[in-house]
Amino acid sequence: MKLSVFSSGAVALLICILLNGCSAKKEVSSVLLLEELETAARVDDPAKRAERLKIFIANHKDHPYKVEAYRRLYRTLLESGDTLQANRLLQEAIAKETVPWEKSELIYERFSAIMEADTSKALAYADSLSYAENFPRLLFYIGYDVSYATGGEGLAERCYKKAAELATNRLERAQILSFYGSMLKRMGRRSEAESVLAGATSYPTGARILADMLWEDGKRKRALDAYVDYVAVMPGARKYARLDSLYSLVSGNTSGLDERLVASRIFDDGTLPEHSFYDLEGRRLNLSDFRGDKLVIYVWSPT
Amino acid sequence: MEKFSKLEKKLGFKLIGLNIKPYLGKAKKVLRDKGAAFPVLMDDSRFARNELLVVATPTTIVVDERGRIRSRFIGAVGDFEEVIAPILKRI
């Protein structure tokens, strides 16, 4: 069954195995896996595409990329009109998934599809998830989505609060509070928004919304501090935030602003953990290979 | 991205990209279109999220020669040289 369909990715994998003398149980380059996945996802015929994606999932059920394969398979089945099979397949995948990140991504995929089709059903599903689930990223995403649905603010608030309480990553917590505070401001609950956003200034959105609010309220000194926080973490926003003009207005001139920004941008956030990655050419690189050099890591996504 | 590559030698640092999304074709296309000439690593284990505290992209992280994380930017860096040069000088 596994060898019944050969994608170019599978051929590449076989070549790799032969050249390297490695067994199929050894780690496979994530680049080869992605080639295999993307080749499967490009198949025109939805039925054949679904079959290829199922084979990918079966062959790589322990790899995180299976989540992307499930996502594409789910969408393929929905596009084909096979809603029943799509939902059953995703529900089964959610039920057997044990890795919290991966389970959450599958649940969010299910939620998003319901949200696209039927808002009231999505709100009911989100309501049950807000009690049952404990993964902060999932609750944050759901909170954000339902916050814009009619009558969804209360549910969003519950999701945001729970997500912020559960978040162990301090930047993630600041991000969640930024969006929670933004919603409170939108709802006219300004003093609560200000209080929530005060804990979110390490995330640019939170710092900016707080700064705008304080400025509108005439609290110019505090607003300026928040604008500095904003631009310190997101330097490209300096012009947009009119930081130099505001700084001049409050402090008389911009003397010391550059130094203040540079000083606030430098800290010691611990040792870069060692990790090994494949590059786009399929070569293995370790972060420790760069020890001894100043290093800039640009984390991005091509979407 | 283009600017990043050009400044590596001038400012004395090494640059690597870390792609956190499972999109290979799109990643290659973006890099080709932008003329980026630095290594791009595929993060297939959520290392950036779990270990580098990345919650949004792009995020730019500066590490010193001893391997300590010394700065982090979320979103647009703007004028890369103007922003990064004083940090690289001091760390």
In words, what does this structure look like?
The complex is a heterodimer of chains A (303) and B (91). Residues 1-25 of chain A have low confidence and may be disordered. Chain A contains 15 helices and 3 strands. The two termini of chain A are 34 Å apart. Chain A has a domain at 182-267: Serine Threonine Protein Phosphatase 5, Tetratricopeptide repeat (Alpha Horseshoe). In chain A, helix 7 runs parallel beside helix 9. A two-stranded antiparallel ribbon of chain A has the order 1-2. With 303 residues, chain A is mainly alpha-helical. In chain B, helix 1 packs parallel to helix 4 (80-90). Chain B starts with a helix and ends with a helix. In chain B, the strands form 2 sheets. Chain B has a two-stranded parallel sheet with strand order 1-2. Chain B has a two-stranded antiparallel ribbon with strand order 3-4. The longest helix of chain B is centred in the N-terminal third of the chain and has 11 residues, at 24-34. Chain B has a single domain, classed as Glutaredoxin (3-Layer(aba) Sandwich), CATH 3.40.30.10. Chain B has helices spanning 2-11, 24-34, 47-51, 80-90; strands at residues 14-19, 40-42, 59-63, 69-74. Helix content of chain B is 41%, strand content 22%. Chain B is α+β, with helices and mostly antiparallel strands and 91 residues long. The interface between A and B is large, with 59 and 69 residues.
